[in-house]
DNA sequence: TGCGATTAAATCGCGTGCGATCTATATGTA
DNA sequence: TACATATAGATCGCACGCGATTTAATCGCA
């Protein structure tokens, strides 16, 4: 199946496809590229979108709680959440009972956007991709299991 | 299965686990965290490691060819490869026949490191993770198929 | 041959991830 | 109460990814 075109730039396309880590890495890039134009409509990046979804499901979370869900820490989340605050999607407020804790809440506009992106965006994408609910669930389950094994190994 | 500890920070751990995109994203983070200490021994980042593996398989590639395999472009690869050059792992040289093209070649030391990381690192990791060759191959095939669908949709 | 269009790579700015460190608050134990 | 320890966030520097633009070389076609 070697075509003339494959002798030049495409010669080695798929050359790294025997590495599972690369499958995960490159699929992540592809997901990002697919999401980007949709999220641009809301002015959100992909990790910002994840924070909005997490807050849509449970509002008024601490930075640490959000980090627990996204597997990120304050060094990444603090600036990200500050950008969400600057965009008017969330508020950041020190907990009065424990001043070490910062509580993140959706603004009214944030709630509206979070609702939108939680439902419309994934549905719109998965339909465009052409993959069944069952395939998604099975693959996702394998990935979550793998992720847990990787975490245990680390 | 709700434990007392789950009422606080861990309450919503796994809250985003119904999103396939998040499964891919978070598994990518976990892979990176697992690889990091091993690659630190060579002074390589994960994408740098991918370039070294690609060059181990076929040396003397152009920036565009490497990008075709890693799904990246020169805006990402040029600075990355310059760092590999600064570290003494590769050389960068304009093609004499077509001066637009930059050819990347492993140095002697680069060849040695590339050999090492191509074989030892993945084997060492997968053994630590505890996942069979068959599981790896099946999951990876699903991911490559998904990636291709995502690319077509983009 | 000449000249616009195309191509390969480089550059720039911004938003992540993350190791390392710092600050401020809370906790525990004498 | 006092002081060491622990915890939650914040800050900083560096290396990606990537959209947008720029530069330089080649190609195509009259």
TrEMBL record, chains A, B:
<feature type="domain" description="HTH marR-type">
    <location>
        <begin position="17"/>
        <end position="148"/>
    </location>
</feature>
<dbReference type="InterPro" id="IPR036388">
    <property type="entry name" value="WH-like_DNA-bd_sf"/>
</dbReference>
<dbReference type="GO" id="GO:0005737">
    <property type="term" value="C:cytoplasm"/>
</dbReference>
<protein>
    <submittedName>
        <fullName>DNA-binding MarR family transcriptional regulator</fullName>
    </submittedName>
</protein>
<dbReference type="InterPro" id="IPR039422">
    <property type="entry name" value="MarR/SlyA-like"/>
</dbReference>
<dbReference type="GO" id="GO:0006950">
    <property type="term" value="P:response to stress"/>
</dbReference>
<dbReference type="InterPro" id="IPR000835">
    <property type="entry name" value="HTH_MarR-typ"/>
</dbReference>
<keyword id="KW-0805">Transcription regulation</keyword>
<dbReference type="Pfam" id="PF22381">
    <property type="entry name" value="Staph_reg_Sar_Rot"/>
</dbReference>
<dbReference type="GO" id="GO:0003700">
    <property type="term" value="F:DNA-binding transcription factor activity"/>
</dbReference>
<keyword id="KW-0804">Transcription</keyword>
<keyword id="KW-0238">DNA-binding</keyword>
<dbReference type="InterPro" id="IPR036390">
    <property type="entry name" value="WH_DNA-bd_sf"/>
</dbReference>
<dbReference type="InterPro" id="IPR055166">
    <property type="entry name" value="Transc_reg_Sar_Rot_HTH"/>
</dbReference>
<dbReference type="GO" id="GO:0003677">
    <property type="term" value="F:DNA binding"/>
</dbReference>
<keyword id="KW-0963">Cytoplasm</keyword>
